[in-house]
Amino acid sequence: MHAIPIHLLSGFLGSGKTTLLNQVVDYYKAQDVKVAIIMNELGDVNLDGQFVDQDVPMAEMLSGCICCTIRGDLSMELKELIEEHQPDVVLIESTGAANPMEIIDAITEAALFMRIDLRTIATVVDGPELLARSRRGGKTFKLMQDQIRCATDLIVNKADKLAPEELVEVQQLVRELNAYAPLTVTVRCVVDLGMFDQAAADKTKPVISAAQPSQTGNHVCGANCQHDHEHEHGHDHDHDHDGGPNHSHAHVMALTHYLTGPVDSHAFEALIKRLPKEVYRAKGIVTFSDTNSRFLFQYAYGEVEFIRITPQGTVNDVAVFIGEHFAKDVLERELAELTGANQG
Fold first, then answer.
1. Closest by CA position to 305, among listed 342, 267, 338, 273
2. How far is it, in rounded angstroms, from Cα 188 to Cα 186?
3. Mind telling me which SMART domains this protein's record contains (predicted)?
4. In 3-state terms, what secondary structure has residue 138?
5. How many other β-carbons are positioned within 10 Å of the β-carbon of residue 62?
6. Angle subtended by helix axes 139-149 and 164-177, to nearest 10
7. 116: which residues sit within 8 A by CB, 6+ positions away?
8. Euclidean distance between CA atoms 340 and 132, whole angstroms
9. Which of 1, 18, 276, 279 has the greatest number of beta carbons closer than 10 A?
10. pLDDT tens, residue by residue, 127-158
11. What order of strands is seen across the sheet that includes strand 89-93?
12. Is the CA virtual torsion 248, 249, 251, 253 positive or negative?
């Protein structure tokens, strides 16, 4: 069974997320890719949902923000939506008041119980609003900064409402917060939708198979994204910043790896203990070959905990890692070697 790609649309209230959402939906439909949507609104009525194609399966999460009162429901909504409609891809449009980190947490929790793979966090930046907020600060400006930091793709919208020198200032503000994600300047979110192409690939080719664990090409928000980063990005690391499609814009990243079989407990624990300091969170479910038991593991900042579990129903063996600037290919290879050693 292949993993369902998940794409998250973030950005402050009124930035243009629903406009982008509709473009992406049309893009997928033109390629015969079945898309489903989760929309989250603060109010009791999903007004934005009125503008979405009624043929598209949609789950509405109202009267609360994913990041607080109903965050725990997101993984359940995702599970039910996928089981009922079996989409090829899922789009999540978060309320503009949400910090993406909370949503990332909910999605990675869901990855323990279903084959999903967070591919993109596209943040739509309201250019004039960011500029205005930057000059007076406050909580809203802080939230906008967090949304920008967490992005794998940045869209600076409403360029037509900015003078040329203001547009330059907005782009500088965005780049100071996130120097790695491809940045596009738009009017009404008219953007090259190639950032979503990886989900629109041939549906017969699984994103994840038993022979090929997942490889998520984009970075995603991590725990540090809700705080002001103390380090400056771009000085100590050799990365391309030109936004080309073949470059990995590694800032804060998540790696989801579905294990293909049991692993030796000592070897797995040794791998976890030698994780580089750049990996600051990990979690997952593993089957140990030498104990014939399954464990939930959680790792944070050098400490790991294993809890013996007996899952109900179908639960995948999976490991999710979140961090900054870590070598994903090396970690993938080490994980594959663990299962390969036991299967060999």
1. 273
2. 6
3. CobW_C
4. coil
5. 15
6. 70
7. 3, 4, 5, 6, 78, 82, 90, 107, 110
8. 55
9. 279
10. 999 999 999 888 889 889 989 988 889 999 99
11. 58-61, 35-40, 89-93, 4-11, 116-126, 153-157, 183-185
12. negative
79: phi then psi, degrees, rounded to nearest 5: -60, -50
Q: Dig out the tokens for 75 from the structure.
A: 């993984």
DSSP 239-275: ---S--TTS---SEEEEEEE--S-B-HHHHHHHHHT-
Residues present in the chain in total: 344
Closest CA to 95 of 129, 71, 75: 71
For residue 201, give both structure tokens. Answer: 């690939």
Taking Cα atoms as reference points, which of 187, 227, 178, 166 lies closest to residue 23?
187
* Residues 216-255 as b or e (16 or more Cβ within 10 Å = b): bbbbbbbbbbbeeeeeebeeeeeeeeeeeeeeebbbbbbb
Adjacent-strand bridge partners of 322: 254, 281
pLDDT value of residue 186: 96
Instruction: Read off the pLDDT of residues 81-118 as tens digits, 9 standing for 90 and up.
Output: 898 999 999 999 887 777 777 777 778 778 877 889 88
Output phi, psi for 55, to 5 deg: -80, -10
Residue 320 tokens read as 């999710």
Checking if the pLDDT of 6 tops 50, the result is yes
E-assigned strands of 139-251?
153-157, 183-185
CB 183 within 8 A of CB 243: yes
Cα 143 from chain centre: 17
Q: How far is the CA of 249 from the CAs of 64, 152, 238, in angstroms?
A: 32, 7, 11
